[in-house]
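Q: Could you write out the predicted structure for this multi-component system? I'm mainly interested in how the pieces pack against one another.
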Amino acid sequence: MAQTKKQRFYIRTVILVVLTIAIVFTVYSNLTKEKNAVLQVGDKAPDFVLVDMDGNEHRLSDYKGEGIFLNFWGTWCKPCATEMPAMDNQYGVYKDLGVQTLAINIGESDLKVNSFVNRYGLSFPVAIDRNKSVMELYNIDPLPTTFLINPDGRIEKIIKGQMTEQDIANYMDQVKPS
Amino acid sequence: MVAVSSTLLFIAFVAYLVATFLFGGAVKSSSSEATKSFERWGKLAISVTIIGFISNLGYFITRWIAAGHAPVSNLFEFTTAFGMMVVGAFILIYFIYRIPALGLFALPIAVLIIAYASMFPRDITPLIPALKSYWLTIHVITAALGESILAISAVAGLIWLLKNIDLTKKSKQRFWIEAVMYVCVLVLGFVAATTTFSLADYKAEYNYVNKEEKVLKMEYHMPAIFGMNESTAITENAMTPLVEMPALVNAKKLTVVTWSVLFGTVLYILLRLILRKRIAAVLQPFAKKANSQFMDEIGYRSVLIGFPVFTLGALIFAMIWAHEAWSRFWGWDPKEVWALITWLFYAVFLHLRLTKGWHGEKSAWLALIGFIIIMFNLVAVNLIIAGLHSYA
Amino acid sequence: MDKIVCTCGNVNPAGTELCESCGRPLNQETKEKKLVDMRYEGSARRSQTYNKTIIDKIWNFFSSVKVGMWIIVSILVAAAIGTILPQVFYVPATTEADIAAYYERIYGTFGKLYYELGLSDLYSSWWFQTLIGMLGISLVIASLDRVIPLYKSLKKQQTKRHISFLKRQRIYGIGEIEASNESIDKAEEKLKTMRYKVKRDGNAILAERGRFSRWGPYVNHTGLIIFLLGVMLRAIPGFYVDETMWLREGETLYIPKTDGYFLESKEFTYETYSKEESSEVFGEAIDRVGSIAKNYQTDVALYKGADDAVAGKPDELEFVKDSSIQVNKPLKFDNFSVFQMDFRLDELKAMKFQLQDKETQESFGDFTIDLSDPQPIYELQNGYKVEILDYYADFTGFEEGVPQSKSPLPNNPAFLVKMYSPEFPKGETSFVMIKETLEPLGENKHKIAFQSVETRDVSGLTIRKDLTLPILMLGGLIFMIGVAQGSYWNHRRIWIQRLEDGQVVIAAHTNKNWLSIMKDIDAVSVVANLPKYEDQQDLDSKAEKGEGV
């Protein structure tokens, strides 16, 4: 009798615990759906190849060992335009310290991107994601969005929205190879 | 073909009306249950019903051929099909239980449903892209069939209540059963109002400003009691609306409802004055002949037969089609939600009956409420709550 | 609690109301009832017997049908509330602020309240999902708690039942009959022909039919549990994809979340019914409504990148197949489906201009600007050329003298151009918009005259992958089997027994359709001599008998 009572207690406990965990997990992950669908800090940054405006090919995995400041932008996006000159300044400082800057335009025309680059005198590599595959890969929304990728090729931080020059400097410093 | 189809529907309509009276005769003479007269009336009544049903099927098939798709693609077609299936379900149940009282109450409800349906545009509409699928036929027909079988349980419930509620004493039950009668008269009021104004060929156009602040045109077919937001008449001599409504409210529909209530209430008062009794009390003698136990069983059995059909048609087939057409099997569209609510409600009904022993009166009321939910999904969700299904 | 030993010797679990074997009532309460409650054969529902630990209490809570019903009613009411106003996903706004504003603007204070209470996104709220989860727990526990004892007692039931059990059945009759043994034999034969399973034990018969319908509820609950399980699996990454993409005619884009698939739109078609083709049948409807859509279709080509391809590389696409995506006819590949969901007609694609002399309107050549890829220089004949300095796709005006564009979509294109001619080798600057031209650096001799536009359509596509579908289908199928099993069949039992004193007893029970079981008994009575029975619950018949009708 005592044996079966104990048994019953354990069976009931196990069933209840399993059901509860399943439900809590489901409710929780549904509530946080948007967050876990996209890339997260700590994930490996997905690889891509893009050709910049000067015709040079940039493959993300080629930069292993360097920190990467990966910026997604559009010419029509005002905060992007605002932060670009600051990014250019910091690019000048950090490119020799092993932090590469890459700016990826989302599917606009060569003419438009060139006129933008010329107007702001940008010196870092700018490439166009013509079929929006890199944008989809990185789940970009909104613009600008910046990914900090550390020398191990992992995502260190995701910054949505505009940054100040101080922010940019701090971030670049964060992924500087030691 | 289209003309033939309409004629067949009309024949069916008349046959159902006639059969109602024949069933009335059968019920009247059933005190002498074994007598020939009872047999005769009953046989005649069910024969006329079957003739009507065949004619109704004829309407359905000819219209199908004419349109090239199952005639269930707009409010008129769907509601008519629903009415037809209520008769079909009744015939089925009649052959199991042979209770004429059921016909006396089921047929008028079918008649009322078909009359209501006829108030909507009756022309054959070609299918919009979303409806172009064989699932239209499968899903809608199965769903309507399920709902119509469920409707029979409400009829049985109604008879049970009419029989067993003491109408001589004031009670909640007496009030609500009369309220049900009143609502039926209101549907008649809607039919009367629509027919009256369409015979008079009433039309008036107004401009109005919608909630997105666009100026649009609206044509009224009944004198505008309520005006649309900031409405101005286009038609000359159009009646100035008595009350202007904010943009959120569709004043045209409100006007239709108000006229229906007015007509229905007048009709109800007239009936009360002529009959000098509550309507429920007038019908009670007809219900008195029915066996409560059987009515309860019919009510339960039709839910049992209808519930799986409804599940299949209104939920499972619906999900499969929704996945094909809208890319998701479930999207919380109001019509979907109300189908789920109907389903949950009948699930509760079955559980309460099985485990809490809710037989007899409670079961009868639940069956009536179930029917109200079905009608709400059919009428209110299409007309009031806009959603993907409001194609009518 | 102790087990209950019945007079017949059978040992019943604690809480049993009717002896599993002979059917004797086992407690005072049951003894006092005129009819027995046959719902679970009077077996002990486990939940109601042990109530010691907190686990037992939680278990019993979920095992209760009453609680289950309250959960369903709560879901029902909540679901209804969610249909009062449109849910967020049907509202034309995307950001939180816009959505809030929308509800307040359109539905006033009530809309604001509705939004603030979270009712506008009710179906994804934690409490609604928790309610559904609780329903799932209730389904599991309530079913487990009932199906096991029911199975046991149906298995243990004996052919010979005690009279105290039989007389408490709804259908019951007792009487002296002649040649009773012979009658019982005949009844046995007859019942066998009526597809009853008949068991005989001396003078007792138990005829049983359709026992499997008793398992219907548990089978359909299993189906529901599987269905809910399928819904839960969606939460696991990789099981479910729901993405949208806008694809322009001529464009080739990566299909989000797929394994390197690309889609090219060749053409979008929008058709309406014309009165001519659709005969006299649809004429009236078309007159009444105006125009009725007939078809939305995107003709596409599907490509796949190389397996080791890296995102970003536009080349090396391998053609997979051509397809026409229509509503109700999605494109399918791997586990993905692409649906035709939306469209925008006539987005600007290219603009044709002419370089003219402003006064004489003499033409120096035409050129066409592809709005998705404007060229820096358009060479015209005789040394005339046009240089595009900058392009504003969605021009909104100037800010501090700088032209602004609010999006990359060519909704309102504007160009800053330089016109070169033999007369003006250094060029004249002009700002060209759709309807007017500005001359920011002084009066020009030449102008860019707008000639015509080319447009293209944009298809709104939804990309869906749902690996839970087979599980959901399985759940639905099992549910339907169970619900049909429980609804369309019924469990009938007829007991016929000759007692010690020579009287014959007949009793019957069915879980539904009492009329049918009475018909069965009547059919047996035709061949076998059986006592008259009555439906002990049919008050009407009794009343009529009392009145002597």
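A: Regarding packing and overall arrangement: Chain A has two domains: 2-37, 49-174.
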